[in-house]
Design brief:
The complex is a heterodimer of chains A (about 220) and B (about 220).
Chain A (H helix, E strand, L loop, with lengths): L16 H4 L14 H13 L3 H21 L7 H14 L10 H27 L3 H6 L6 H19 L3 H12 L4 H8 L3 H22 L1
Helix pairs in contact in A: 2-3, 3-4, 3-5, 4-5, 8-9, 8-10
Chain B lengths: L5 H11 L10 H23 L2 H9 L1 H24 L13 H16 L8 E2 L2 H25 L8 H23 L2 E2 L2 H32 L4
Parallel strand pairs in B: 1-2
Helix pairs in contact in B: 2-4, 2-6, 2-7, 3-4, 4-5, 4-7, 6-7, 6-8, 7-8
The chains are: A mainly alpha (about 220), B mainly alpha (about 220).
Chain lengths: ~220, ~220
């Protein structure tokens, strides 16, 4: 996706720099077109019932949807849900796409909406379950109170063990393991190189493994 | 969702269920369709009341004419903006389109109250007469709003409440424009207040009810 840059691919309701480059007519020969125009041509063909073009444009859209969802603040483990929801939405409202306009802007608007819906949903869930934060983290077996308490103790031991790690290793576990940031994001956050983060994470996991195997 | 092939499977399933769709008509064309309905009502009202009293009022008190023009332009621009917001990817800046004509409509109506003389072929409305204006605006706004929402049924307004507010503004402004044909009252504070109340009622009702209707469309937006 060479044309998809952080600056070029804006969320809806902002300006759309990509739109300025869109010619009102979608040319008949998509081979020489930019990726966005190609997607626009595929979607136009899909509206007429071309299954192959439709599957291509949907497959091509997955990365774009993920970019929009991430920009909206969707967590890494929720991205695929947003992608699926957006693909379903594209299918339902595909008649609203106007081939004279930017496909990416149309898609970004739908993806942003689905991302916001996803964030609201997870926000509501968090709000409902915030009364027992530990239970949310551990998913205790409701039928077995002792199993739940055992898991809670294990989690506490794990937290204590993480807290006792050397600062570099603890940082790596927190950023990569708990906050689920990508290596690049964690590197940006901590000011450490991705290589150093990887080494620290590896060492931290080794130390934790040793500690818990010893405990158990 | 750990399964990396889940997207591929969904895409294949959507492809298998693909059927040709009829594209949504452009916003200007759908605006024109709705304006045709407004124009049909205007023709009936003109047939009943004629244009002479209206033109006489406007000639004698241009502020009434400007207010009428503002209402007509507000109706057109708000309807257009609501249809534009029903298309994903269109900028929400469209929502500002009706602002200048709305200012003209409100400003000219307000200025009319400052005149010390009464416009020709009019009188200053008593409170019950001004109450009739309220019923006229609300009464005509209901079917006009319903028609706009029906025309938006295939659209996908990603900001349903904002779209519904524009639907309310368009239908209230259109009703106020139609009222101009048979409005034998001069601009006065009570009349203007009840006009404003009617517009606020219509916009508020649309935001509350129309927003829900339109957001249902966003959730289960239909193809075809």
């Amino acid at each position: 996706m060479p044309d998809l840059t952080a600056a070029g691919f804006m969320v809806p309701d902002a300006c759309f720099p990509l739109r300025a480059s869109i010619d009102p007519a979608v040319p008949a020969e998509p081979a020489s077109e930019t990726p966005e125009r190609r997607r626009a041509a595929w979607m136009a063909a899909a509206q007429a019932g071309d299954r192959r073009a439709y599957e291509r444009v949907l497959a091509d859209s997955v990365t774009l949807i993920r970019v929009v969802a991430r920009r909206q603040g969707v967590a890494h483990d929720q991205l695929d849900d947003v992608v699926q929801e957006t693909l379903l939405t594209i299918h339902r409202v595909r008649h609203t796409y106007d081939p004279a306009r930017s496909y990416d802007a149309w898609l970004a608007a739908l993806a942003a909406r689905r991302a916001i819906d996803g964030l609201r949903r997870s926000g509501r869930q968090a709000h409902r379950e915030v009364a027992d934060e530990l239970a949310l983290a551990l998913h205790p077996d409701e039928t077995d109170a002792s199993a739940g308490s055992e898991q809670a103790q294990q989690a506490q031991r794990l937290r204590a063990a993480i807290a006792e790690l050397p600062p570099g290793q603890r940082e790596a576990v927190e950023q990569l393991g708990l906050k689920e940031l990508s290596l690049e994001e964690a590197a940006l956050h901590t000011g450490r190189s991705t290589g150093a983060l990887k080494v620290n994470l590896h060492r931290a996991l080794k130390a934790l493994r040793q500690r818990f195997h010893g405990d158990d | 969702m750990a399964d990396p092939h889940a997207h591929d499977r969904l895409i294949a399933a959507l492809g298998a269920g693909l059927a040709p769709v009829r594209r949504l008509r452009p916003p200007w064309l759908r605006t024109l369709g709705w304006l045709c309905a407004v124009a049909a009502i205007a023709v009936v009202l003109v047939g009943r009341y004629g244009t002479a009293p209206m033109l006489e009022r406007w000639a004698g008190a241009p502020d009434l004419g400007w207010a009428g023009l503002g209402a007509v332009l507000t109706a057109i621009s708000a309807a257009w903006a609501s249809f534009a917001l029903g298309v994903p990817g269109r900028s929400t800046a469209w929502a500002w389109l009706p602002l200048p004509p709305t200012l003209l409509w409100i400003g000219a109506s307000g200025l009319g109250c400052l005149r010390v003389w009464v416009a020709p072929a009019t009188e200053v409305a008593s409170l019950p007469q001004a109450g009739d204006c309220l019923f006229f605006i609300v009464g005509f706004s209901l079917p006009l709003s319903a028609l706009l929402i029906v025309l938006l049924r295939r659209a996908c307004p990603l900001r349903p409440v904002l779209t519904a507010v524009l639907v309310g503004l368009a239908s209230a402004a259109a009703s106020a424009s139609l009222l101009e044909i048979c409005h034998a009252f001069d601009a006065a504070a009570t009349d203007l207040l009840l006009h404003a109340l009617a517009v606020a009622l219509v916009v508020g009702a649309n935001a509350a009810l129309g927003g829900r209707l339109l957001s249902a469309h966003v959730r289960v937006g239909r193809a075809g």
